[in-house]
Every structure is written in C-alpha cells, then in structure tokens.
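Example (one chain per record):
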Amino acid sequence: MRVCNSYFRQIRAYQINNKEYISLIMRVKPESDLSFLKKYDAIVGSHQGRIVTLRLNVEQLNSLCEEKEIIEIETSRKVANATLSNALKDIKANEVQQGLDLLQSYTGRDVLIGIADWGIDYTHPTLYDTLMEQYRVLAAWDQFRTEGPSPEGFSYGTYIEGKDQLLSYQCDTANIYDTGYHATHVAGITGGGGAGTKYRGVAIDAQWIFCSWLVDEASVMDCYTWMRNTARNLGKRIVINNSWGVYIFGYMDGSSMLDEFMNNMSDNDSVVFVVSAGNNGNSPFHITADFNNNDTIRTEVKFDRSGASANYWGETVTIQGENNTTFNSRLEVYNYAWQKIYETPWLACDGSVVEETRYALSESDTITYRASSRYPLDHRALVDWEVALTTPGGNDHVVLVLQGENGIAQAWNVACLSKAVGNWGVEFAAPMTGYVQGDDSYGVSEPGLAEKPITVASYRYKPNSWTPDISPFSSRGPNMTSYYKPEIAAPGTSIVSSINSFSADGPTSNNVVSSEGRDYYFSPLSGTSMSAPMITGTVALMLEANPNLTPEEIKNILKETARTDSYTQECPNDVWGWGKVDTYSAVKKAEEKVSLREINECKINVYPIPSSDCLNINGLKNNTKVLVLDLMGREVLNTNCVNGQINISALENGVYLLNLNDKGIWKKVKFIKK
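Predicted structure:
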C-alpha cells in the first residue's frame, strides 16, 4: 500500500466534536465491503467503485494505514479554482432552440445541470425562465455553511431546497474565495434565461442544482455523489459542469483517484462530466527532463509578480517520472550576480520529506521551502516542492536541479496560495547556458485528464474583430494519457454572462437589469471556464433530444459532428481535439439515435423508432398499463399494451415519453411519432 505524506498547505483538516479530523481518499480492494472501517472513528462520505472518501480522527491514521483492504490512501489535497448571444450563433445553439429542421425545439427541458463551483447568486433573475415566471434552481449544497441540515448521507454543510429557501439564503457562503462570482457566470452560460437581455444561455429551460464545495478532493467527490443521488431521485439525466482545474491531484496521466471516481460514475450511473481544459496555453510553466541527454538538469523557478491574488504565497513545483524513471531533486539559490548562496538537501523518490525550513538569504529576502515525495506506484515517482521568497520580485534566483540516470520526467511550476491551491502556471526560465526553458505543453489540468469526462478548449469568437482561432490561454497537450485531451473546443473569450450581485469585487458593466430593487450585471469573462459550460448546455440539449444517450455516445457524437477549418487544421490534435463544437449537428445526431432500446436492464424493447401507427413493446405482460406523455409532462394517451402493441396513430408527429408500469415500477423511454 502507498501512503501519501502530508502535503503542507494542501491538506484539509476539520474540527468535529472538539477533535481534529482530516479528509482522506483511498483506493480499496474491489471485493472490500468497507466493514473494516467500523472499528475506526471514521465518517464515510462517498463510495464509487474502488474509491472511498472519508474523514478520520487524525490519531487513528497510522492504524488505518495498516489495513490490508486498502491499496492506496492519500490526504485529500486542497483545490484552487464574444457576447453570449453571438457565441450561441457560432455554435448553432440558437437553431436548436428554434427547432429548425428538427422534430421540435430543444431547450434543455427535463434535464438537470449540476454546477460544482463557487460564487452563486441564488437571486439572479437569469435563473428564471425567459418569461421570468419559473424559477429553475431546485437545490443547493453549500459545504462551507455549518448550521445544517446536511444532505442525506452526509455529515457536513447545509442543504438548501426550493425557491423560498434559496432566495432567503441569497448566495453561497463567503469562503476562501470570499464572495465570488464565478459560478453565477458559468451557470448563465449553461442555461441562463437572460432576464430580458440578449445574454441567454444554451439550455434555457434546463434546471440546476449547485454545490459550493470545500476545496479538497474528497469534498468534490461527495459533491458529485450528492448530484447523482439528486438526479436519480428526480428521475432526470444530469450533466455536471466543472469549470476549474489543478495540477496536484496525483499522476497527470488520467489515473488519479478522482479520475477513477469520475470514470466509474460515468460508466455505472450515466453521469456526464464536462471539464475545462485549463488556462495555461500561453504559460511556459512546464519542462521535460530527459535524463538520457543530460544527467543533471537545471531550470530557474520564476515567481508570480502580477499581484493576481492577494493570497499568493509562492510556487508549487510538481515533478513526475514516466515509467520506471526515478530522480533526485533539490533547490539552489543564487544572488543577483549568479553566485550560489544556498542549497536545500537532496530529495529522493522514496517517500522522503524535506521539513519546512526558513533561511535568511539577505536582510530583505528569506526563502521558505518544504517538499514531499510519494512512494512509486506502478513504477512512477512523484515529488512536490513548495517554495516562497519574502521578496519574489527581488534579485535572488531559485533554481530547480534534477538528477537521474535515464528516463524522462515532467515538471510543472504553478502558483501556490496561502488559502488554497493556485492553478495558473509561472515560468520555468533558462537564464544560463545549459538551463532548460519552460514550454506550454502538457498543459491540460486535472480532472480534465480523466478519460470519460469531456474536456473543453477555448477559441475566440467576436465578429469583425478577432480571427476565430484558439484562445491564447487555452491549455493544450500533448499529455501523459493514451488519448487526446481536450476533445472539443467552444467559444471562451470575452463571454458576457451573469455576475453575482453580492460579490464585492465582481465585475460590473453597462449591461444591468433591476429586479426586486436590486441591480444585476452581465459582464464579460474569458477562460476555458467559459467554454466548458457551452458544452454542458449542448449536452443538456442532446439529452432532451435523446435521454437514453450514454456519456460515451454523447462524447462520440460531439467528436463526429465537430467543425474543422483552416484554424483547427487537421483534427484530432493536441490543441483542438476534434474541432469546434457544432451544437445543431450534435442534437440532430442525438435525435437520429433514438432507436431500439432495452429499458433499465429489463428485457423490454420498444420498436420501431420512429413509428407511425403501432408501437411494439416486447417484454411486458399482456394488458399492462402504458401512459404516453408529451415533453411538457402532459398525459396524451392512457392505454394498455395488448399483444405487445399500442396504437399511436392518433398522436401528432413529435417526440413523446412512454411510461411503462413494470412490476409496480414506472419506467420511461422516449420515442418518435412520425
């Protein structure tokens, strides 16, 4: 079993009943029933396949690590984080909303969108439908609130349900990101009603659930579990938007425990995940260390001088060996004249730790550093250094030194915050001959490297101004995966959408709507955080057209229907994936795939689809009751299945839901009358 050492600022700890608990994730043996946890003071959160989240009294950690049922256990690390109307035209979502040459218009009706993010304004009028009549948020889980009640099956945070409660809470809790605005902007892109403006989203009749999750891996897994459970209880398909990404979730090759958790939920529960690729496309924050060419490799670790975050602490340098590659690493410090003034101990890839150390370099500058290595899992080594200078814009230089006999390692230099984990890259520089200069390759962040989720790049779209090329910030491959990431691109530059009215530092603009005596803004933001919800809304439209689509089918349709041009060049590639999203063609293809289906693993088959007069239903007892509903949920036919058939000739052409009472359980399938 591999045990992850402490990750310094990245560990999430909690006080429960005056005891200190830490958040953990673990990979257990496939046959484990978790009964061994009963003897520990453990609070289990989510269990998906081999992955389990839990909170454990810190005093019991050493004992738990000896359990033979556990393959791997880790501390749950902290996590960071064109107008909309024109962008919808570019991806052809407006044509889907209008139903041009489709069986009907599609607007996301009866589909649930989960927003896993921070900074949601529950009162924003864009969360209503386009007529400002129907409020479309069903529930929220604010994991930062402490007053409860918690959602069923969980022991923390506050569950908020229904319009009245949500409006009374107004917005999610000010947390480590203060009162943010990000989630409100993202939600507006997925399906905002626009509040009378032109800034409508993609799936304008979809419903939402929100989770403002504690910034650690286990909490986001719990968030996904709650969202899946909510969708299951409502009998709805769900697509979960993740407009965030980090570079410290373990191996950057799609094999982290979070990756496995999401893959399992996609395969077993048909949850569709959409993830932003990251915003480091123009950041030289990565190096490849090839020990076959150079046994000792040096690169300068630059520090963020932009002042982008008041919580900036320093840098996190993550180094991962490929295959059997192992290496030693240390930091060296040089003064303005490039004379060495300090060096740290060497750190091997054997689970060793460099304890936190402070060293005065001069009267005006002090270095603080610490490091941790993880035992190689499947012959892959992983090391994290955290380093800070009191004067990051001063004259001292910090150099990363790597030594290895042979093989290849990848390294990333990412901002480290005092309250959480940063996710923007900072330069690796080559100021001296023989040093390695950073590049922007291997830039896709976690969990965008997981195989099953749809990972989204960003391109520019603004008529008569920009060329429709890739956004410079959009993260790109190659990656350490065996598959392309990202898979698809959508508009993500200067997208105007809704802003949290309760955020003190939220952007404002002239696009303002007044409602209930309060001003609400629509402002432009850029990032793959904006392109991902374009795809999330597209998936919602596809699921309305065909709720039986699997996550794999949805991804394949997006690939098959993607647009290519002179900017994308030949696809697939490491920048664009399969190209620019074509929402109209994707929904059209989803319609075409409404066909012979087996319902919920029962031997009940419905055919032919489309049908004109009679619909065959095999697998039901004779005279079983059948209800046919339109897509607004209205009953249009109440009949019995006689000799495996029902007569639908009286129905108008269109798409319907067939409700079957199978052994006392109502089951639903979509069909087309044509």
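Caption: The longest helix spans residues 217-234.
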